[in-house]
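Pinned message: reference record for ABC transporter related
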Amino acid sequence: MAGSALEMVLELKGLNKQYGPVDALKNISLAIQPGEVVALLGDNGAGKSTLIKVISGAEAFCSGSLSIMGKTVSAKGYCVQKARQLGIETVYQSGSLGEQQSVWRNLFLGRHLHNRFGFIDHKEERKQAKALLERLEFNGIGANVDTPAQLLSGGERQGLAIGRAMLFGAKLVILDEPTTALSLGEVDKVLKFIEKLKSQDSACLLITHNMNDAYRVADRFVVMDRGSIIAQYHKSDISQAGLQQALLDAVGGGQ
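Predicted structure (tokens):
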């Protein structure tokens, strides 16, 4: 990949993670540029979940290096809070929303805006929430900032979680199976939200089992198997059918 380390949102070099005698991640090297969508593919147990936990600060890596926007972080000092401070946001399948809370309260949950007197600025939060929903082209019940999260559709829930990452200027958004169990219309909404991320120059690491979704939005495909990256493909170099077969061959060849 072209460019220096300073131009990369995320760069991993020789990263390893062990759980006792088990090598969960082995010599992982990966770089992601601003505005790039990378699909992380592989069978169950390939190491995808462990990798995103390490990148998001939920798990410490054992050796190797991890850099964000050219800044190398320490394995000991790196955590979820630090990852967020550096611009890494993770959206899990559940969306991690407060069910009883309104849309605008969910957007600022744990990161409220304050006025000059130190009080939470509800008016400004609602204003920014409304502007964000318009930018994301929310419609229907999800377009109302006062709607409780429990009334949102699956696609709107994912969109709200992605929007929260956008609102706080995320450099890299990690999406963990965002389209699972959604209808085709809802899947389309989520993929459009991912395209919105890309348009504002945020990078995205997409974990999915759905090849159609991956091929529609991703610029590059990274294949994992048994804790290692075993193949990488640029979208311009491979068709969807070719990617499907390459994935089967790569993973199947290791059996």
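Pinned by admin. Summary line: Confidence is low (pLDDT under 50) at residues 1-6.
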